[in-house]
Amino acid sequence: MAALRVITGGALAEERKARPANEGQGLIAELYERHAPAVFSRCRYLLRDEEAARDALHDVFARALRALPEFRAAASPTTWVLRIATHHCLNVLRAERAKWRDQLAVLARERRVETVAPDRRELVRALLACAPEEAQEAAVLYYVDEMTQAEIAEATGRSLPTVRKRLREFLTAARAALAEALPGIELPEGAEP
Amino acid sequence: MNIDLGGPGVACSAMRVRRLLAGELAGEERAKAAAHLLACERCRETERRLGAERAELAVAVPFEAFAAGVAERLATKERRPLRWYLGVAALAAGIALVPFISTRISDDPGVRTKGGAGVRLYLQDKQGPREYRANEPVRETDDLYAEIVPGSRRYALVLLAEGNEVHAAYAGPARGQDGRPLVVPFPWTGPHDGTLYVVLDDQPIDAQAVRRDLRAARRGAEVFTFKVPRAR
Asked: Exposure string (b/e) for B89-114, b if CB count within 10 Å is 16 or more?
């Protein structure tokens, strides 16, 4: 046996150095089990492309690992990582602006029976492209994640009036886009959050 | 035709269902959400939809592909600050590190093998991964990995002493998942020379006690030491 040696030394260094490697190995599995299903679903919903969603999934979790202390400190890791995913996908979509803006027209073309309303979630997704950038994330959090305005304000660090304003901006843009692309479909007046 | 885009209901929220299922709610909030879920068809539908997401992921992106994809992203962007995470992701994916491991036990005089137990050190520099040579200076840009060869030992503790600090790099079973070799990437970003200690034992090791004083290691445990000088 090698000679034993007393190790003097103080407290653990910062968390990164002290984190046992087995915790790290388990971390990847934990992220996959607990959060990857929601993130992949969000990426697939927004991007509508399996391969692009896979790429986005990897990007989102690489980013989460880089910001691990922030992730761990989040009041709701689920909300935190879904916001990262939403933000990432909206950026990807903005990079394909022309294609994205065409999606409401595609939805209109695919709507074969005019008496049947389009799928609510699909309509929200298509309408996002027409909304101002700042309003897009608020719309996803409100209409897809069904978070209250107060919850959105807390998660995004915005004030409640700002969240309300963003949602109104989204609805204004959505109404205009619907009038043009799907004239038979209207959002009810007084639907403002 | 009017269409409702949805949004949160009086008590309905897809995110709240998510958080409930993820165990992120507590106390009264958890109790209220759970009670609401039982009584609300809309939220139960949400629960079913969320449940399907897991199966869809398993088919579209199996865990190995997930871990490999994340490791690839970490490797291609901002590599320097990410050494620890890259190693972890690569280990989880079962890629990259293990194929580079040779079978020779290090010649470092501090290394002892007993009952087949031992430790192999690997260094990855610009030229790629290779076995670490005894007392070889390690640059800050290099990555170090320790492979545990547990023999009959069941538990391992890996400590890195550096200056006046001792960091626990690993504490747990001496074998990796599914019996694979355990490869421990250890973070070493400080400027001082370091000493790597690997303790192998048949019984669980009190990592905190041994980290404070190596003499706390149980009698009968094996201790391996590697001097790892920092390149100047």
From this structure: bbbbbbebbeeebeeeebebebbbee
